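Entry:
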Amino acid sequence: MGVFQSFFDIFKKNSEIELSYDFDTLIDEYNTLYLKHLAIDTCAEFIARIFSRSEFRIRKNGQPITNEWTYLLNVRPNLDQSASSFWQQVVYKLITENEVLIVLSDDDQLLIAESYVRKEYALYDDVFESVWMKGYEFKRKFPMSEVIFLQYNNNDLNRYVRGLYEDYASLYNRMVEVAMRNHQIRATVGGKEGRGFDDKLQKKAQSYIDKLYEKFRKDSVAIIPMQQGLEYNELTNTVGETNQSIDELKKLKRQFVDEVADILGIPSTILHGELADLESAQTVLNKYCVKSLNKKIEDELNAKTISKAEYVAGMEVKVVGVDKKDIFDLADAVDKLISSGGFNRNEIREEVDYESIEGGDEFYITKNYEKAKGGEEVNDETGN
């Protein structure tokens, strides 16, 4: 508000300022930034909301275990956030800023750094210093081995958006200009009966114009009285233009969002809430977007929350999200795999993100998969 207030103070101090002040440049910059941020924000928020539904499971040799990290990752990472809001913020920041730093405070809170300085070393841990969070600066330094540091590596996205918004910006701004011109109220005020404008009539005309402007600006339906000696003629003509301009703007915005979504692996049908071919779109989303993000975060958590000795002993962190397989949809396939002796129950359970069970390593094979013995009579109806 202060920026706009100081901006309008210019007009108060200098009533002679030229109307050709570079408003067009300001509007152009706003529109290009709006398009760029709209596309990235829409896609980043979509992915962040999906990941916020994930569950973090810590296992040892296939069996679930519970420790402090289980609580921090799944329930309450810090005093101010739940797990879902925390991870939504993490993923949004990861996509929009290409990286995110999470530090563990002295009282065991997971905190998302707002800014930091990274010092890189060839043979030692990189160090993060000047770490800020909500106006507080950590006085100590954080080595790479003690933080969770995620990088999205979406350089292609950054380059694409930079080139894309430059191409679309001029077209979009042109559309805005045309729409504004089509909806602008244009009128003339003149003296009746060929009268010119003397000083008195000029002041009267200016007062009349000011009142017209205020009336048209504030009221959707404006009725104004006619002034004696003045004639008001409106030149505005927007017939047949409104729907076309609005539709074109909507299509352009959607086009911009769709291009960014393609880079991130988001099917546009899901992004826009379309139900056509939803199952196929969900499969594409899980395969090309969700799984890679889960793997990236899963690897970092395994590297930073579990020691080498613990990992070798069979401990691991698994991220289970919306890409989790539906066991009811797979029931027939699971039955075939187990009954044919190709896989045991624990191998199947691991594939669908369930812990192993006692006796699940045994293999079974049903009679219809067994080799028939020669010379036996087989009943056509019972198969015996």
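The chain has three domains: 19-98+152-184+237-324, 189-235, 327-374.
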